[in-house]
Amino acid sequence: MSGHSKWSQIKRQKGVADIKKGRTFTKISNAITIAVKQGGGVTDPDQNFRLRLAIDSSKAANMPKENIERAIKRAISKEAGDIEEVIYEGFAPGGKVSLIIEAATDNVQRTSATIKSIFNKSGANFGQPGSVMYQFKQIGRIIVNKKGTTFEKIFEEAVNLGAEDVEDVNDEVFIYANVGNIKEVRDGLSEQGIEVLDSEISKIPVATISLDEDLQSKTKVEKFIESLEELDDVQKVYSNLE
Q: Which of 66, 119, 125, 161 could make an S-S bridge to 91, C-beta 3.0–4.6 Å?
């Protein structure tokens, strides 16, 4: 339980430049809207855990409180009826690297056409539903603040709550849990006075693909993934690239 390299596939979503920060806020706002919709219109994060996860992400991205409140209000308005979650699967240029793309859109036809266009221009292969999904597993990830406590204490609490893995990362601790157990682990840590900085349900590859011996291909794949991540409708892109 020291934090194995497989977990490095999961990265925190951070905005670097203002435009990236804006995109991050847009993506999180959409995540909040979908969380409320799929939660039956429940706007209380204590009663809607997916909303709690989205709010955790908003705080980790330093999203202003008014933006969060606006997204929740939008979720219970007529405007929210147009936004839906869509998942795409495919293979990056070269055909070796598998991808899962999660999107939130008010126009599925537009989003699908845009993503397919990027695939076609890059020489990538757009996949059928199920063609890639089996190569990934869902995992819950919680990031907590180590300040004011110790890694040992957090490790002990997390393991007692059922965490699968715990990783010491500078001033933070990354905790990984089964999706069915993430709420219990997150809430349990919070009840012990441990500050939760971010939490999410993510996907990790069952096995990874290395392109280190072909840096040109690796660079092409990485740029392709970045081009997808830059789309406003795309929430997350998961790959099995090592």
A: 125
